[in-house]
Amino acid sequence: MPRRKAATPATDPNVKQENGNSVVNSQSDDRGSDSNGEQKTTRKRVVPPPVKTDPDEPTIKRGRAAKSKAAEKLAQIKQETSDEKETGKAKKGRAKKKAQVKNEDVDDSESTAGGKGAKKGRPKKTQVKKENDDPSSSSSVGKGKKSKQVKEEPTDDDTPLPPTKSSGVERVVVVSKGRAPVDALCPIAKTAHVLEEDEDIWDCMLNQTNIQFNNNKYYLIQILKDDSKNVYSVWMRWGRVGANGQNSLQPCGGDLGKAKKIFMKKFSDKTRNEWDMRDFFEKVPGKYDLLAMDYATEDTTDSASKNAKEKMKEERKKIECKLDLRVKALIELLCDVRIMEATVMEMKYDAAKAPLGKLTTEQIRAGYAALKKIDELILQGKYSNMQLVLACNDFYTRIPHYFGMKVPPLIKTKADIQEKVALLEALGDIQAALSVIDQPIDVNVHPVDQHYIGLKCEITPLDKITEDYKVIENYLLSTHGKTHTSYKLELVEAFVCKKDMEYERFKDVGNRMLLWHGSRLSNWAGILSQGLRIAPPEAPVTGYMFGKGIYFADMSSKSANYCWATQRSNIGFLALSEVALGKTNDLLNANYNANKLPSGCNSVKGLGRTAPDPQKFKKLSDGLVVPMGPGKETKVSNSQGYSLLYNEYIVYDPAQVRTRFLLKVKFNFR
Fold first, then answer.
1. Region 381-393: what's the mean pLDDT?
2. Rounded CA gap, 28 and 515, in Å?
3. What SUPFAM superfamilies does this protein's entry cite (predicted)?
4. CA 370, CA 394: separation in Å to the nearest integer?
5. Which of 100, 369, 409, 531 lies 20 to 30 A from 147 at CA?
6. Number of domains in the chain
7. 583 part of a folded domain
8. Cα separation values, 171 from 100, 197, 353, Å
């Protein structure tokens, strides 16, 4: 969830200057901070100067972004590849006798005639070309034409950054006749399938990034077996992420041993790991990393399987859904995989099926670990450019990104770290959501009912005539921060949430308050299924202003900013959680080690300059305190020149939290 980052008065755009002193506006929420994205800092390079000067207000996307040069270049590459395919059809007769082998990469010396073992008397070999998986790689970092600064030093702020433009990469439909899909660009995809032997699937996707050479590349290897006879081939495709790249199809006839030998040698050459030991894979510097493929995505099936699945889906829809219509609509929205994919693509993650697959939990953790190394370099302040380049290479290799033809940017500021932490948090929540969505199909249960059951969270609509609804609506409207002027919030629907796990483990240490928590739409299915979580040990500390914890706010708009709503997508969700704060450790300044609480304390409260008036607080029948607004000046000052604009509440034990309500809100932008 969103983690808090530290703010510095000199650079923080969330810092206002008042009487010579700076005032920082801090956000809160989500697994470490507000929004499973996390705090981000608006960058001049990304966002044009805002019309309004609200430091705590996310930038609004206006209109459709024009297609980037990178996207145009990618489209050109796809068209050229398509043209080459058409030309190749004229040679179909000869291709039947021997498969055309396209040139391998710099350390692959196979020729179009079949490699090193070509016999005398065969046609003259064509010259072996070096791998050019990155068409722009000739302009390596530090050489040739100087590239623009990747990012200028951003202000240190805990306000989330605006989402970046989607790369526009098209999702490639591939053919699957088993657990692994045949690469869509393979010429024998319709007549062959990926070899499976018990639990062994002879298919792998590799990824590598080298910023210094502008490489951001993949390597796909598959053993294919003919659908009707025991004939085998090895298919390989490599290139820049998002491009079709080059390929090689090596026929092996009935010799399965030969096919396996080719596959395993290529895997070893590229990774310096052995295929038989891939369960213990260790990333080697300068070599490719092994990515886990997503074989279960619905659009990765052949036409027959897809038609059967569509028919089953339609049949299941005829089954009566037992949910209230309002809950049914909620689950359909929260479990929409397209929204999840769009979210991570906006964050530059390559979510397309080709060329990269879905990451595993282990690889997400490896991404955190790689990011932590970058964070340590930045914090120590003394490092060589090559040290940072190599650390960034490791992160991008483990967590595939799409940058078109641009050089992968260095991750070199606190804001950059927080941006990538947000991505990893989103990937973690989406992975949790997909574990619910991709459960084995029960043909006797409506699909939405099955998703609801998988969340293991009781969700009930709250009628608008009830007292609880009126209290919640008043709480929402009365705690809108005065600096958040770009929109007004409107309560559309409210749902009562009860997750047995949260109620069973709840630790009531006293001082219970009903507090706000906001996150991206794509994250809520994961949050509801697993509860709010704390960042893993591998995560860098920079992303969290008061250490790794679960962040909340008592001002609704502070958390609402982390919904990332826009004028074109103006619906978001906020949680109201019961938080047992106990004795708070009140802090004015950021402290990455705030999770190491003083003896007798149960939580941290970051003191803000505006907060709900305690005289207006409302206590519910069970003793739960609702800090009703409006906000008022707290007179909190900081001798160092700045303080938070609004309160932050952080707990470091998930057992001190239980979600009570989920609110569907509309952002009415001015």
1. 89
2. 11
3. ADP-ribosylation (SSF56399), Domain of poly(ADP-ribose) polymerase (SSF47587), WGR domain-like (SSF142921)
4. 6
5. 369
6. 1
7. yes
8. 26, 28, 6
Average pLDDT, the chain: 76
pLDDT, greater one: 473 or 46: 473
Domain assignment present for 194 = no
User: How far apart, in whole angstroms, are the C-alpha atoms of residue 398 and residue 407?
Assistant: 17
Label residue 239 by pLDDT band (50, 70, 90). very high
Task: Say what the pLDDT of residue 345 is.
Answer: 82
Residue 648 known to be catalytic: yes
Helix then strand count (H, E) for the chain reads: 14, 26
Query: What's the pLDDT at 21?
Result: 41
Q: Look at residue 108 in the predicted model and tell me its pLDDT.
A: 38
The whole-angstrom separation of Cα 175 and Cα 321 is 32
Angstrom distance (rounded) from CA 598 to CA 582: 13
Which residue, chain included where needed, has tokens 């000046």?
Answer: 633
Contacts 24+ apart (CB under 8 A), 436-439: 436/335, 436/525, 436/529, 437/335, 437/337, 437/525, 438/296
Three-state DSSP class for residue 406: coil
Q: Cα–Cα distance between 75 and 71 in angstroms, integer?
A: 6
Lowest mean pLDDT among 92-106, 309-323, 470-484: 92-106
For residue 461, with 0-12 CB atoms within 10 Å meaning exposed, 13-18 middle and 19 or more buried, which class applies?
middle
Is 472 among the domain residues? yes
Q: In 3D, which of 652, 501, 484, 660 has the Cα closest to residue 575? A: 660
Catalytic residue among 131, 502, 578, 648: 648
Q: Is 227 part of any domain?
A: no
What is the DSSP track for 139-159?
A: S-TTSSSPPPPS-PPPP--SS
Closest CA to 408 of 554, 215, 265: 215
- Hunting for tokens 């045949």 — which residue is that? 182
Query: Which pLDDT band holds residue 308 (cuts at 50, 70, 90)?
Result: low
Sign of CA dihedral 123, 84, 228, 357: positive
Encoding tokens for residue 101?
């082998």
* Residue 296 banded pLDDT, cuts 50, 70, 90: low
Structure token digits, residue 394: 């490791």
**Amino acid found at 346:** E
Task: Calculate helix-pair angle for 447-455, 414-437, nearest 10 degrees.
Answer: 120
Res. 574: pLDDT tops 90: yes
| Distance, CA of 406 to CA of 70 (rounded, Å) | 7
SS3 37: coil
Q: Measure the CA–CA gap between 272 and 274, rounded to whole angstroms.
A: 7
Instruction: Give the DSSP per-residue string, 73-96.
Output: HHHHHHHHHHHHHHHHHTTHHHHH
- Any idea what the CATH number is for the domain that residue 620 is in? 3.90.228.10
What range defines the domain where residue 659 resides? 20-64+452-669
- Give tens-digit pLDDT for 311-350: 666 777 678 899 999 999 999 999 998 888 888 888 888 7
Residue 19, sorted as left (phi over 0), alpha (psi -120 to 50) or beta, turns out to be left
Choose among 626, 547, 629: nearest CA to 587: 547
Q: Could you give the CA distance from residue 28 to residue 34 in angstroms, rounded to a whole number? A: 4
